[in-house]
Specification:
Elements (H helix, E strand, L loop, with lengths): L1 E4 L4 H7 L7 E2 L13 H20 L7 E12 L2 E3 L5 H11 L3 E14 L2 E15 L4 H9 L20 E5 L2 H5 L3 H10 L4
Parallel strand pairs: 1-2, 1-3
Antiparallel strand pairs: 3-4, 3-5, 5-6, 6-7
Helix pairs in contact: 3-4
């Protein structure tokens, strides 16, 4: 089988290697547009667009089955989606909002694949609750000025320097990093894609 990850995220690359040892990386480049309002439906729709874009760009009917995996992650607090911050001021506002509270992290995963002459796909989503400890103004400023918050949904990465502020999670840790590994493994097995 030919496996492709439709993402340039180094975190997703590392996580997918725990499930599939050999795969290609072809990041999706189309603009992300969603018609959904609920976070879980948003990430499923966006992951579907990413996987579909790369699947149809690379589709050939050879003897090798093609499997394309796309994912999208958002942070949500109080019915508000927190994407990547526009700048450091935006990052600071996000961290201020999350500190001392519990928020949700949603990851949607879509898989497009060939089955003989047929083209098939499926999608699923996971939600993890994340508790962030109370932070001082100085801790927030220091974290944001480190630059780690710059390109991350919700202005933080759970696996980085921000980990010292995570007081607990409920659900899949790897979902917060960007790819729910155990669920993906289960789904790929159930569709005979491993």
């Amino acid at each position: 089988m030919r496996y492709i990850l439709a993402s340039g995220s180094p975190r997703r690359k590392e996580l997918l290697s725990k499930v599939i040892p050999d795969f290609e990386i072809i990041p999706a480049v189309s603009e992300e547009v969603t018609s959904q309002e609920e976070p879980l439906e948003i990430v499923k729709e966006l992951s579907y667009q990413k996987a579909g874009e790369i699947f149809y760009k690379t589709l050939t009917y050879s003897r090798d089955r093609l499997v394309v995996i796309g994912a999208d992650t958002v942070v949500s607090y109080n019915h508000r989606i927190l994407g990547k911050p526009a700048d450091r001021r935006d990052a600071q506002a996000m961290v201020e909002m999350l500190q001392g509270r519990t928020h949700s992290v949603y990851t949607g995963v879509s898989v497009f694949y060939t089955d003989g002459e047929e083209e098939k796909s499926f999608s699923f989503g996971e939600c993890t609750l994340v508790n962030v400890a109370a932070m001082s103004d100085e801790e927030i400023r220091d974290y944001v000025s480190s630059g780690e918050s710059d390109d991350k949904a919700g202005a933080y990465g759970i696996q980085g320097m921000f980990s010292k502020f995570i007081s607990g999670i409920e659900g899949d840790y790897f979902n917060v990093v960007g790819l729910p590994v155990a669920r993906l493994y289960k789904e790929l097995k159930s569709h005979s894609l491993l």
